[in-house]
Amino acid sequence: MSIEMIMDSLFDRRVENLPAEALAEVFDRLIWCEADNGYELCEVREKWLQGDSQERCAIALEMNDIFPFESIKEMKRVFETITKKWPQFQERCDYLIKVRDSQGV
Fold first, then answer.
1. First-to-last CA distance in the chain?
2. I need a labelling partner for 43 at 20 to 30 A (CA). Which of 28, 65, 72, 104 fits?
């Protein structure tokens, strides 16, 4: 079973009204449990950030342990698209960009 299938299953089976940060915390922990250091999980996260599911995007934005995307330039480009679709994510996107900028990553 692929990590994407696991993530999709956890998403599909989550309890009603589970806050995005609760499932994001599970995914953050899984990153450090995988032999590939969460590479595949991070790829799925990036897919969710670029997808059409507002709920999946919310979960992906709440993950804290690793920044999405190889570069901040790419992250900013994707976040701009997200905030145009879903303005309620503007504050979270701005925060993640600010933190990444401050860390020079």
1. 32
2. 104
Number of alpha carbons in the 13 Å side-chain half-sphere of residue 31: 19
Single pTM value for the model: 0.94
CA distance 45 to 57: 8
Residue 92 identity (one-letter amino acid): R
Q: What is the DSSP string of the chain?
A: --HHHHHHHHHHHSPTT--HHHHHHHHHHHHTTSTTTTHHHHHHHHHHHTSS-HHHHHHHHH--SS-SSSSHHHHHHHHHHHHHH-GGGHHHHHHHHHHHHHHT-
